[in-house]
Amino acid sequence: MREINIHPILQFSHGKELKFTFDGKTMKAYEGETVAMALYRSGIDIFSESPKLHRPRGMFCAIGKCSSCMMRVNGIPNVRTCILPVREEMVVEKHEGFGKLPDYIEKFAEPFEINKEVAIIGSGPAGLSAAITFKEFGIKALIIEENPQLGGQLIKQTHKFFGSEKEKAGTRGFEIARDLIKNIENSSIDYITNSTAFAIDENKIGVFRNNQYMKIYTKYLLIATGAAEKMIPFPGNDIPGVFGAGAAQTLMNVFGIKPGRSILMIGAGNVGLIVSYQLLQAGIEVKAVVEAMPTIGGYFVHAAKLRRFGVPILTSTTIKEVRGNLRVEKAITISIDKKFKEIPGTEIEWNVDTVCLSTGLIPSVNLLAQAGCKLKYVTSLGGFVPVRNKDFQTTNKNIFVAGDVTGIEEASTAILEGHIAALAILEKMGLKTKKLKIESIKNLNNLRGSPFSKKIIEGLKEVECE
């Protein structure tokens, strides 16, 4: 029903068929698929209910950053089903009301301990790039990733990257991810997936994996946790069928599932424009793209592709309301003036079953805050970001950062940042990497040479320290 059967770029194949139960009903899934994806593929929209008003709730981010897909799995409450792989005979139940505590409490085993000189939290472009750099200098870092597979958001990017050939220009994002992952898997680099880093205490990292606690001791830590999608307030924003744009990408480009039949995209930055085009490639109708600003925020080339398909891009327009009972049925947009005030009488009603929000990303700095790293709010970088020096060293001298957690930019930038941060750590370890590091910093500055990077460069000045 929701399968993508034909795609101009991607080919989808299914693993071994598995069976599990959802609220007592037997469901089908495929090996490698997460619980949330298997349910959505089967036509399930409602994953939970609000505690008091019992409003239906559905999936939103699909990468484990929000609570929209939490369910009870094998008796354990509050499990993020969007990042939990299906297992044979798994028992999944929706939370209703205030939920239900486990019927019994198992005694926790003593934490499993690991000692590593370097640990990396996050396996997106920054984390993978750093791990490969460490490997090239004979250092075996440990990658900690909470999703079922390596690659972060890069695995779902089907568009070709801009920049220089050296920085993978002309290569599709998922192809870059495939090459990086292959490099990791074909080497001696250690990595653990489905592993959530939840605490940092001096040189210790608390990790939860497969219902077991792990304690990882490390001398140097690189945090590359990426970013989360931003929710915006409007009536009906919790109705099933309201997705983050990245969730739509995960459904389409990783699992071959259509997010909906007819979609309204909110936000005309690069992400909104790119995902809208990818929706069209998957055979999904895009009614329109709406943008609150008076001009389109993304590159002209992305907007031009949509216009060739007849998709209207409405500027100075915002989402007013989403309506629907068990699923999105209608969306209402309205024009706004220069002061972002709604203009009465300009409402447009759209008959859609899905609304995608591309209204910005927020750096995932939770662990950095917990570790005592100094943070600063910088609008052009996406929110709170760590204060750091040119080596990506934070105010906690043994913690380094790279990628979108330092500020929202492109994946090509994240790859270079991971490389530089790794070189800086290697230099602290006594290896001669300074010359290569300086050259890489120069390449990073060149990559930020376009007019679109002007605000980012200004923002970076606010968080750079000695």
Structural summary, described in words:
The protein is α/β, with parallel strands linked by helices and 466 residues long. It has three domains: 17-93, 2Fe-2S iron-sulphur cluster binding domain, sarcosine oxidase, alpha subunit, N-terminal domain (Ubiquitin-like (UB roll)); 112-228 and 362-463, FAD/NAD(P)-binding domain (3-Layer(bba) Sandwich); 242-361, FAD/NAD(P)-binding domain (3-Layer(bba) Sandwich). Helices cover 24% and strands 26% of the residues. The protein has helices spanning 35-41, 125-136, 173-185, 245-254, 270-281, 300-308, 366-370, 411-428, 434-447, 454-463, and strands at 17-22, 25-30, 48-49, 56-57, 70-73, 76-80, 91-93, 112-121, 142-144, 190-192, 195-201, 204-209, 212-223, 227-229, 242-244, 262-266, 285-290, 313-314, 317-323, 330-335, 348-350, 354-357, 361-363, 375-378, 383-386, 399-401. The longest helix has 18 residues, at 411-428. The mean pLDDT is 94.
